[in-house]
Specification:
heterodimer, A: 99 residues, mainly alpha, B: 424 residues, alpha/beta, FAD/NAD(P)-binding domain, 2 domains, five-stranded parallel sheet, four-stranded parallel sheet, 11 helices, globular, metal ion binding (chain A), Cytochrome_c_Oxidase_Subunit (chain A), electron transfer activity (chain A), Cyt_c-like_dom_sf (chain A)
Chain lengths: 99, 424
């Protein structure tokens, strides 16, 4: 337990800091599906892996490999097969640009 | 800082300079009204404020706290408490959504207004209508609102009292009793939900009342993720779970709360310790009363914009619409909310709607650490919603304990993520 004063100061400091995740622009609608499991801004949550700030080429290669059944996965291969090349590129670029 | 603002405000007011542009802005900011604060409505309100800060967003929702349908079955299993699935609207309020805890009493699509029970009338430029379902009391003989206090539906959570009632009944029943579940014909909210409920009730009984059983009486022949559910029941619960399809006399045609029986089509009366009735459903009353539903009781919508086929400035999302083959799921409500808002704003700006892609993953718990899923991706076709060929599908069958364990964990990540996406 922290003293209340410290907590209040921490909350105030957090409020004054810039938001931790900042996207370059609005998410492409294809990326809106991702945040349903990978946390706000794709920042990762519980067992949902972090997507934000990762290399765009890496994310794109992983998604393409899932789609081609060249990378094993619990659920992602089934998902990746629903998306086009352009959507995969846009989604990868969007999450890579979040800092 | 405060003094400076006050001085500027006084000066501006005195000169009549500051007030005028503000009033002008207030008049010209587009007004988005959202009716319903669940998976569709809360997602729409939050997405609208986050993406289009210049739009005024008003959310009409009678309840001050939201209890989710998803994970309600885990409460029945004893793996969650009501507080774990209850959410506040404070995050949406902090984001600038005006929240009115009131009922939408009537919609006038021609005048573009929503009248509230409390007396206020809201004018909108675009309306996002996400009121969910109505239970069709009376459609199943013997099942009305009074009967729901004996045989809970626990299908519209409201303040959570129905789900808690069913849980208390399970806790109070003696070992060796039969828990009956009456399952309706399609369409209904959450296609895998009844089968997850069978699983979670069986999980509770196995731990606490092992001589009891679940008797699931179904008006259908087949159901979502059927093979996976049945594999899981066999592996985890054995003969404790009995699922009866319509062709084997599974269709419940009458319930009797006084005798605590479900009567099936061929005249068998099943005596129950606890009965859960998932009744036939339609779109919520406001949709039907406003002339926005068709003869089936659901709203027809455009597959790209989710706009009503009969009222183009009203986008109807969530379980109230007929978006078949898309399921009535929380994830689809969340996805379509964003497409509806983006389409509504595009129309206000004279632009074309964005290309639609809808994503669904429904996880179900067969056991606490045994998850299964179905994935779907849909797009807008010329005549309706179309599933992308060769995409999605259900979890693989077979003895795959690691797959099941991971999917239960991923379900938790989904719940945490989607509720943050809705409520902040």
């Amino acid at each position: 337990m922290q003293p209340t004063g410290f907590l209040a100061a921490a909350v105030l400091a957090a409020a004054l800091l810039p938001a931790p995740a900042v996207a370059a622009g609005p998410a492409p609608l294809a990326a809106q599906g991702c945040v349903g499991c990978h946390g706000p801004n794709g920042g990762g949550i519980a067992a949902g892996a972090r997507l934000s700030g990762r290399d765009a080429g890496e994310l794109e290669a992983i998604l393409r490999a899932y789609r081609a059944n060249e990378r094993p996965g619990t659920i992602m291969p089934r998902i990746a097969r629903g998306y086009t090349d352009a959507e995969i590129t846009a989604v990868a670029a969007y999450f890579a640009a979040i800092r | 800082m405060l003094r400076t603002l006050t001085r500027r405000a006084s000066l501006g007011a005195a000169l009549g300079l500051l007030a005028a542009p503000q009033a002008l802005r207030a008049q010209t900011a587009a007004r988005l009204v959202v009716v319903g604060g669940g998976f569709g409505g809360a997602s729409a309100a939050r997405f609208a404020r986050a993406t289009y800060p210049d739009i005024q967003v008003t959310l009409v929702e009678p309840l001050t706290r939201f209890v989710t349908c998803p994970y309600g079955n885990l409460l029945l299993g004893g793996y969650r408490q009501i507080g774990d699935i209850t959410h506040s609207y404070d995050g949406l309020r902090a984001q600038g959504v005006r929240i009115l805890h009131d009922w939408a009493a009537a919609i006038d699509p021609a005048a573009k207004t929503v009248r509230l029970r409390g007396g206020e009338t809201l004018a909108y430029d675009k309306l996002i209508l996400s009121p969910g379902i109505a239970l069709r009391y009376g459609a199943l003989p013997g099942y009305d609102e009074a009967a729901a206090e004996v045989f809970p539906h626990a299908w519209v959570p409201g303040d959570g009292s129905q789900t808690r009632l069913l849980r208390r009944q399970l806790e109070a029943m003696p070992d060796g009793g039969v828990v009956g579940i009456a399952i309706p014909a399609n369409p209904f909210r959450c296609p895998p939900g009844p089968y997850e409920r069978i699983s979670m009730i069986a999980a509770y009984l196995k731990r606490h009342k092992p001589r009891s059983k679940v008797l699931a009486l179904d008006a259908k022949e087949a159901f979502s993720k059927q093979g996976l559910f049945q594999d899981g029941w066999k592996a985890l619960y054995g003969p404790m779970v009995e699922w009866v399809p319509a062709s084997s006399d599974g269709k419940v045609i009458r319930v009797d709360p006084a005798e605590k029986t479900f009567e099936s089509e061929f005249g068998v009366r099943h005596k129950l310790a606890v009965g859960n009735v998932i009744p036939p459903q339609s779109a919520a009353r406001i949709v039907i009363d406003s002339g926005l539903a068709d003869q089936t009781g659901w709203a027809q919508v455009d597959p790209t914009t989710l706009a009503s086929r009969v009222a183009p400035d009203i986008h109807i999302i969530g379980d109230a619409n007929n978006a078949a083959p898309m399921p009535k799921s929380g994830f689809i409500a969340n996805n379509t909310a964003k497409q509806a808002v983006a389409s509504a704003v595009a129309a206000l700006r004279g632009a074309a709607p964005p290309e639609a892609v809808y994503f669904n993953t429904c996880y179900s718990h067969v056991g606490e650490e045994y998850g299964i899923s179905v994935v779907n991706i849909f797009r807008a076709g010329p005549n309706g919603f179309v599933e992308v060929p060769n995409s999605g599908g259900v979890s693989p069958r077979g003895d795959l304990p690691e797959q099941r364990r991971l999917e239960a964990l991923y379900a938790d990540a989904w719940y945490a993520s989607i509720t943050r996406d809705m409520f902040g």
